Amino acid sequence: MGWQVVQWVFFVCLLARMARVGFFGPPRLLAWPMFSRVSHCLMDLRDQDGEPINPWLDIVHQDPGMNGRELSWYLAYLREVRGLRANGTVTLVDYTGRQVLTVRDGYVVA
Question: What is the reported pTM?
Answer without folding.
Answer: 0.63
